[in-house]
Amino acid sequence: MSAPFGRSTRCLSARSPVGLLSQLRRNHPVRCPLGERRLSQARPGGQRGPLEGLTVLDLTRVLAGPFATMILGDLGAQVIKVERPGAGDDTRTWGPPFVGAESAYFLSVNRNKKSISVDLKHPRGVGVIQEVPVSRGHTLMSGYGQTGPRAQSPGYDSIASAVSGMMHITGSEDGEPVRPGVAMTDLATGLYAHGAVMAALLQRHKTGRGVHIDCNLLSSQVSCLTHIAANYLNGGQEARRWGTAHESIVPYQGFSTKDGHLVVAAATDQQFVRVCNVLKLNELTNKPEYKSNKLRVQNRRELLHTLSQRFLQEKTADWLREFEGSGVPVGPINNIQEVFSDPQVKHNGLIQEMEHPTAGQITVPGPAVRFSSFAHDKATPPPLIGQHTVQVLRHTLSYSDDVINALLESKAVTQNEVS
Amino acid sequence: MSVGREAAVASAARRPAWTTRGPHSVGLDESSGGALCHHDPGGPGSPGYQGRATRTWGPPFVGAESAYFLSVNRNKKSISVDLKHPRGVGVIQELAAVCDVLVENFLPGKLPRLGLGYEQLCAVNPGLVYCSISGYGQTGPRAQSPGYDSIASAVSGMMHITGSEDGEPVRPGVAMTDLATGLYAHGAVMAALLQRHKTGRGVHIDCNLLSSQVSCLTHIAANYLNGGQEARRWGTAHESIVPYQGFSTKDGHLVVAAATDQQFVRVCNVLKLNELTNKPEYKSNKLRVQNRRELLHTLSQRFLQEKTADWLREFEGSGVPVGPINNIQEVFSDPQVKHNGLIQEMEHPTAGQITVPGPAVRFSSFAHDKATPPPLIGQHTVQVLRHTLSYSDDVINALLESKAVTQNEVS
């Protein structure tokens, strides 16, 4: 879920890359310390993230914006997170659960950032922000867009998910609309934004100029409707809810087992035959009404009823074992504990542990994308509020100690006792 | 917003990027202005057949084109190459030598066996950005499992957390795991291109459905990893804010996001249920969460009494965020959706006028006014061989005759 963005919330991309040439190491395997996820043989890349040397000024809060800037930080950019004194980012208080004084929510989307605490209502506070060289352009994230009839509506994932059609298409076949269990509209917007920022940086290499970027929840989710949208726009076909099932492929859905759920994706006739083999329901393969996918779709109710009854008779783990080697794609519907016990999840480095200055050891979901040229081994923990105010003023803006002290005294900025 | 006239051309656009499959990430790259070639493989049984299969995924069709294929394949050229034919592989190797970016979603190991793996191609083109998209990753115990959004959504926990409170798990109504992966990939490709400016070298990128969706679990994951708190389904509701969910109305549904005490009071005002604001058990959000069943029952009954449009009107100016649960027709009738350019019309050479959801992101430096329609299969084979690889007509004809490549009758 998200809180309102409003017009004043920005993620600014700034600064030209510092012109360092990375030291290229040859023929050295890139190893991910958190797992054994090694990608190709070594390619010289100097272990530097692709965005090393770039600075991002981050004025976003809650989910979509912080998610985007976190990914930029994962890729090596320096992210300066500007927070209002006192509470800072709303999500710092969103719990339980807390780890020490830090909410798990805040920890999950704020690694690799520095926090400066600046009062934007104070003229000297605004002055500090203006001095960071961001004339290269900026990315504005909002609920609905920078202009238009809804531009003034604050952006909430829940509402954008409703307005954009996402809720209408999610839920059980005969049930009410629901929303995706995590704020995918917010996250898709963050993902669009992180890419857009880099596209703008690529362009800047050629033109020397920055651009303004408009990302919003509504557009992100509507674009993501893809074929659902095209079905309507071209065929006038309204969408509906399908639970875990697929409108045009049978059997392609979840089934309850004795102790959980399993998803089967049998998209071809051969795969359907194998499903029947594994289920020991071979008689189904002889029924003319199930011979082709088209027929199975037409006669879905009866077929799915038969399959459902059979799946209920055994446990998920037993079914998974019986399906091994069958060529039929299957998988369990994992709860969160099961997700993080999965060996592939561990292998992919998706359990990222870090030391936090006050909370101690924290664990967050790791970066999704791996590059052969560097390892994600330089991650820094999510910052305390205002942890890096003085550091940034000193090193990024080259302020003298006198100027820094004056700003601190005026309360235009604040510094955490931990730095 | 005002949009500048000059085109934004990402540096990848100087030379075309080539791809097999991976339609979602390719769809995004093109929106930044890169010229991309989409490789349509040779047919059933050949590698990447799935990619071609979406051309047949319908109804609905527009002419002979499936709406599914049209929705994610604009701004691409299509060349038709048989990867089982050695000369076909040769064409791809030569293209990779002159391209910026290669995006693929074969099972790990398949392309290297054909001589088209990262190791082999970057030996010829050290600057190549090679983005692999798979179900579970390039290595590891599940690397050989084919990637299906449905299964990845299940394995990654997404289904477990989606559905009504007392109902079964469901999946998001569109393949958000697939799409999130495509979005991660498009960003990763551009990060790699940025790095190439400094180092001159390309990179191999590993994107996969499992990692994308697990990373997107964000706070749901952190709640478990740090607090041992298992997640559950909440329908449209929120675990820790009340009222913050959908309500059925007389003729549809409405979502209300009342996150503060003042907003709760305004909800009661609009609903003419002012007595609720005096009840001690609803005074704070924490209390409303504790007493949610009763409160939500009362609110639900009231919302049922009027139509969605009437409620929306009554909530205007109240400061409470609300919105209708739109079906797809309602989405594309929404004035903001139209304003944002999300209804993109194009002329297709055989299907005539087609309409697809437009690009999500707008830049001040260019307009999305040069979009080309999704290609017919092999529509640009000769064009690409001639202009990108500078093949002579003799060489092109020989390739066509050998069936290593095919050309659509429309070009």
UniProtKB/TrEMBL annotation, chain A:
<keyword id="KW-0808">Transferase</keyword>
<dbReference type="InterPro" id="IPR003673">
    <property type="entry name" value="CoA-Trfase_fam_III"/>
</dbReference>
<dbReference type="InterPro" id="IPR023606">
    <property type="entry name" value="CoA-Trfase_III_dom_1_sf"/>
</dbReference>
<dbReference type="GO" id="GO:0047369">
    <property type="term" value="F:succinate-hydroxymethylglutarate CoA-transferase activity"/>
</dbReference>
<comment type="similarity">
    <text>Belongs to the CoA-transferase III family.</text>
</comment>
<protein>
    <submittedName>
        <fullName>Succinyl-CoA:glutarate-CoA transferase</fullName>
    </submittedName>
</protein>
<dbReference type="InterPro" id="IPR050483">
    <property type="entry name" value="CoA-transferase_III_domain"/>
</dbReference>
<dbReference type="GO" id="GO:0005739">
    <property type="term" value="C:mitochondrion"/>
</dbReference>
<dbReference type="Pfam" id="PF02515">
    <property type="entry name" value="CoA_transf_3"/>
</dbReference>
Automatic annotation (TrEMBL), chain B:
<dbReference type="InterPro" id="IPR044855">
    <property type="entry name" value="CoA-Trfase_III_dom3_sf"/>
</dbReference>
<dbReference type="GO" id="GO:0047369">
    <property type="term" value="F:succinate-hydroxymethylglutarate CoA-transferase activity"/>
</dbReference>
<dbReference type="InterPro" id="IPR050483">
    <property type="entry name" value="CoA-transferase_III_domain"/>
</dbReference>
<protein>
    <submittedName>
        <fullName>Succinyl-CoA:glutarate-CoA transferase</fullName>
    </submittedName>
</protein>
<dbReference type="InterPro" id="IPR023606">
    <property type="entry name" value="CoA-Trfase_III_dom_1_sf"/>
</dbReference>
<dbReference type="InterPro" id="IPR003673">
    <property type="entry name" value="CoA-Trfase_fam_III"/>
</dbReference>
<dbReference type="Pfam" id="PF02515">
    <property type="entry name" value="CoA_transf_3"/>
</dbReference>
<dbReference type="GO" id="GO:0005739">
    <property type="term" value="C:mitochondrion"/>
</dbReference>
<comment type="similarity">
    <text>Belongs to the CoA-transferase III family.</text>
</comment>
<keyword id="KW-0808">Transferase</keyword>
<feature type="region of interest" description="Disordered">
    <location>
        <begin position="11"/>
        <end position="54"/>
    </location>
</feature>
